[in-house]
Amino acid sequence: MQYLVSVIDDKSNPGSTDRQPAISAFNERLIAEGHWVFAGGLADTDAATVVDNRGEQAVFSDGPFVESKEYLAGVWVWEAPDLDVALKLAAEASQVCDRKIEVRPFR
Amino acid sequence: MSHAERAVTRAHREEWARVVAAVTRRFGDLDLAEESAAEAFAVAVERWPADGVPPNPGAWLTTTANHKAIDRIRRESKRDEKQKEARVVHDDSPPEPLGVIDDDRLRLIFTCCHPALAVQARLALTLRMVGGLTVPEIARAFLVSENTVGQRITRAKAKVKAARIPYRVPSADDLPARVSGVLTVLFLVFNEGYLATGPDTDPVRQDLTAEAIRLTRLIRSLLPDDGEVAGLLALMLLIEARRPARVSAGGELVPLAEQDRGAWDAELIGEGHRLVRSRLAAAAAGVAPGRYQILAAINAVHTSARDIRDTDWSQVLALYDQLVRVDPSPMVALNRAIAVAELDGPEVALAAVDRLEPVLSGYHAYHVTRADLLRRLGRSRESRVAYDRAIELAGNTAETAYLTRRRDQLG
């Protein structure tokens, strides 16, 4: 079972910036234990562009699809046998990243 | 009611969770388990009057539910997934020994009370899957529409499936935290029964308090060494014991001080006291008691007194001090102030209560307590204002009646 694990940062109350070494170590463990599928940090939401080509012509607009105080700062895809395993890892991940984590199963 | 009808009713009460749990273990699907269990009981209603009640109703129902589940999967697999059929065809698991079945029910409870589900969803799912209550019954109990309950249960089951919430007793590390979530759900059910909210319900819903006690007994039989489970059971029994004296013939709430103590249920009190004593022994051996055990001990002090004047208030206050350390919530501080009033007088208590205003001003119990303290201090005008606010916020008909009379008695 695969889970999308989103790292959620907060514009007005951002998490610590010195977490990279701890995240790398955590990733090593995810790989060693067979949970790691994919991971990536995201550039700031300022760098996002929304494309809508459902109408007559494609419309490009600057910024993320929804403006909010909280935003997606990075993602993992994990392989885990069930939600309890994923939640346990997510609890660790939240500490390691100093940010909130959303766990959502793939369909 | 005929013998067979009584047997079905009884089996529904005693075996529902077992049947649902057994089908869930075999097929890993709450929806399927619930539907098959319901079908099995429907078959029992039809057959038992004609064929006689089977010697082991639980086993009969489980077997029938399993067959119904297989029928259902076969029907569905003809439409879509061939894979499911393969699983059914190759399933030759032998009947499980009793211990495993009990473990099944525990797993079912932990699945329904999983922390990834919203509290309201846990409540509805537990009452439905473990308690066997119907959707209309749950809706009536919590004053929400059947539609809302149905949606909560459907969504919760969908989340269990989609997120793969495991059907499992949590590991030893997680157990204490997860048991506390289960106990929260059971206490919510009990409290709604004990002080039912809403203008059109009975002030006391005995069906709900009984259900909460039954489920807590079940948890206790499955986790006999958990102190908080014992504590919650004792607490419920000691509160339930006072139920016969709690509402007057005129439908008015009777406060503890004015209750006819002869009407209290001595048997429940005896059982509650025995549980509290066993927890006191554990505490003496160095096991720190949790919130429910301390609350049970407070209720044990109240139920030991023959008369309100006989109440050992210093013992009550000492227990509240202990409770504040475990649960420093404003509600605990409010209840502690009631004991303070008995020992140090209403003036000291009122000062403590007034400090809670910023956090509790929207809560009816805060105004009830203030109204009573102000009345005892002879500050009638302020007391009246507090009663007005309490009446506005109280949801229980018997309580509203009591508060209204109290207010109208003010000079």
From TrEMBL, chain A:
Q: Which InterPro entries match?
A: Dimeric_a/b-barrel, YCII
Q: Which domain of life is it from?
A: Bacteria
**Signal peptide annotation:** none
Q: Which organism is it from?
A: Saccharothrix saharensis
Q: Where is the YCII-related domain?
A: 1-103
Q: What is the lineage of its organism?
A: Bacteria, Bacillati, Actinomycetota, Actinomycetes, Pseudonocardiales
Q: What is this protein called?
A: YCII-related domain-containing protein
> Which family does the record claim for this protein?
Belongs to the YciI family.
From TrEMBL, chain B:
Q: Where would I find the RNA polymerase sigma factor 70 region 4 type domain in this sequence? A: 109-159
The residue ranges of the DUF6596 domain are 178-277
Name a single GO biological process.
Answer: DNA-templated transcription initiation
Highest taxon above the source species: Bacteria
Q: Compositional bias (Basic and acidic residues) at which positions?
A: 73-93
The residues covered by the RNA polymerase sigma-70 region domain are 18-78
Q: Which keywords annotate this record?
A: Sigma factor, Transcription, Transcription regulation
Which residue ranges does the record annotate as region Disordered?
73-94
Q: Which InterPro entries match?
A: DUF6596, RNA_pol_sigma-70_dom, RNA_pol_sigma70_r2, RNA_pol_sigma70_r4_t2, RNA_pol_sigma_r2, RNA_pol_sigma_r3/r4-like, TPR-like_helical_dom_sf, WH-like_DNA-bd_sf
Q: Which GO terms describe its molecular function?
A: DNA binding; sigma factor activity
Entry similarity comment? Belongs to the sigma-70 factor family. ECF subfamily.
Task: State the protein's name.
Answer: RNA polymerase ECF family sigma subunit
